[in-house]
Write a structure and sequence with these properties.
single chain; 15% strand; globular; 2 domains; 5-stranded parallel β-sheet; 41% helix; two-stranded antiparallel sheet; alpha/beta; Rossmann fold; 403 residues
């Protein structure tokens, strides 16, 4: 009897020790913010949206940044804005994807906030308000639908579309896009963007794992640092194959880089056709509200830092004997703008000129803009909008008129 009690006591103590260790691990992961919080939820029309009022921390596995994030009441990563435009305010609505959402830097460092500060300082005709409506994963399809449903409610005087050729064209294709697939009708008109279906939260121990930061951290380490072990676990049925995801490829080339091919294949030609139609629809929607559309063509790090593109090509043998035009997508958007009378600014030249400085403009692993990149973008955009007389300013010819 005494032996049984000792065995039971030892088992209980061992169990308590394991539970305490797991609890400490969970608390440590949460306290150090080793895994990012989630700020998005499915949307039946837009594919995905930011959760209004959500807050937390954003980081990535290489720990290049750790940023406190707050989503406002309207589901934007921005300060609070009322739908009704206050008297005497000139409003700019910025549409875009993760480069506009910009969770990689503090809110005050994002280019929309810095753009407002610069324009407000230069304006002599009242306050200028910049509203940041960027959401990760958005292409022109989701951005246009957002404007039709939400964006126009802000009564913007100017709509600035931040077009990112690195993935926006792919995002607009129902065949190339793999996450937020746009759905087009028989007439080719966009109907909605289909995101991942909402799944009910599992119960029991699976539910506990789903809510555990320590579990997600260990899973992240397994999938990113020990991919061979993860593949072994998949083969033995201990891990779902979907967990070990790789970038989709076509003929040994990652799909994303197909946008840089000088002679696009049929799938990319169709993607560009959809993109052209979406841009035209957005222009018409914006004009119907009495506003104006302008486009900023954002730049990828591959355009700015040649060594990064060389590393990509070196890592994919099928890319090495082919020609690539990293500025081709930018030139195509510029041509569309010229044809349709839309003011357009390509940021790549300014970023290349500034890349010689020691301050990086893009994060090395993540690829998005650093605070210095956002600062440069804001300065270039402010000068462009003022030069094109798209915003009220007292510094051009002594007039506050907008043409």
């Amino acid at each position: 009897m005494k032996r049984s009690r000792e065995l039971l006591a030892g088992t209980v103590l061992a169990g308590l020790g394991i539970l305490c260790a797991l609890a400490l691990l969970e608390l440590g992961v949460r306290w150090l913010h080793l895994v990012p919080d989630r700020f998005w939820e499915p949307d039946p029309v837009l594919g995905v949206r930011l959760v209004p009022g959500d807050r937390g921390w954003w980081t990535q596995e290489d720990r290049e940044f750790l940023v406190r994030v707050q989503i406002n009441r309207e589901g934007l990563r921005d300060v609070e804005h009322r739908y009704a435009k206050p008297p005497g305010v000139f409003r700019i609505l910025v549409l875009g994807d993760s480069f506009v959402e910009a969770m990689h830097v503090p809110l005050e460092s994002t280019f929309p906030r810095q753009l407002q500060e610069r324009l407000d300082r230069d304006s002599g005709a009242g306050k200028i308000e910049v509203i940041s409506a960027g959401v990760s994963g958005y292409g022109t399809a989701s951005e246009m639908l957002y404007f039709e449903r939400e964006g126009k409610r802000y009564q913007p005087d100017l709509v600035l579309l931040a077009f990112y050729p690195g993935n926006d064209v792919k995002n607009n294709s129902p065949t190339l896009e793999d996450t937020l697939k746009p759905v087009y009708g028989p007439d080719g008109a966009l109907q909605r963007v289909a995101g991942e279906a909402t799944r009910s939260r599992p119960g029991g121990w699976r539910g506990l794992l789903a809510r555990s930061a320590a579990y997600h951290y260990c899973r992240q380490l397994l999938l990113l640092r020990h991919r061979r072990l993860a593949q072994v676990l998949v083969r033995r049925g201990w891990l779902k194959a979907a967990a070990v995801r790789t970038a989709p490829e076509q003929d040994g080339i990652p799909v994303d880089y197909g946008v840089y091919a000088p002679s696009p294949d049929p799938a990319w030609r169709q993607a560009w056709s959809y993109t052209d139609a979406l841009l035209l629809r957005l222009q018409r929607d914006v004009s119907a509200t009495g506003s104006r559309l302008a486009i900023a063509v954002l730049c990828a790090r591959d355009q700015v830092y040649p060594q990064w593109w060389q590393e990509i090509v070196a890592a994919h043998p099928h890319m090495q004997n082919r020609q690539w035009d990293l500025d081709g997508p930018q030139h195509r958007v510029e041509s569309w703008c010229a044809e349709h009378g839309v003011p357009c600014l390509a940021l790549a030249p300014a970023f290349r000129a500034a890349a010689a400085n020691s301050t990086p403009l893009h994060f090395h692993h993540d690829g998005h803009w650093t605070a210095a990149g956002h600062q440069l973008a804001a300065a270039e955009l402010a000068g462009f909008l003022e030069q094109q007389r798209l915003v009220p300013t007292g510094q051009i010819g002594g007039s506050n008129e907008i043409h």
